[in-house]
Design a protein that fits this description.
- About 35% of the residues lie in helices and about 25% in strands.
- The chain contains two helices and three strands, in the order αββαβ.
- Helix 1 packs across helix 2.
- The protein is elongated.
- It starts with a helix and ends with a strand.
């Protein structure tokens, strides 16, 4: 399974978002640290979920990292998050 698909699956399961977009931006980072052949290393996630309402920006980021789990986070070099309720 692609890392991008795993990200989407875990976030949908945990947050039931109204909107979610997971973009593999790895190709923008060719030649930079963390780039791996074939991509799947640099991601941008845009998610809108009511379950994040009332949480600070830091708490939202922590919740996403928790939902993804250490195993998946360990395979990602960069993760940009755009989160709101």
């Amino acid at each position: 399974m692609l890392v991008s698909a795993e990200i989407r699956e875990r976030l949908e399961e945990r947050f039931s978002p109204q909107e979610i977009e997971v973009v593999d931006e790895s190709e923008k980072h060719i030649g930079h640290a963390g780039y791996q052949e074939g991509g799947q290393s640099h991601f941008h996630v845009r998610m809108r979920a009511r379950s994040l309402a009332g949480l600070s920006r830091l708490a939202r980021h922590r919740a996403v990292h928790d939902a993804l789990g250490a195993d998946l986070i360990g395979r990602i070099h960069a993760l940009a998050l755009d989160l709101s309720d």
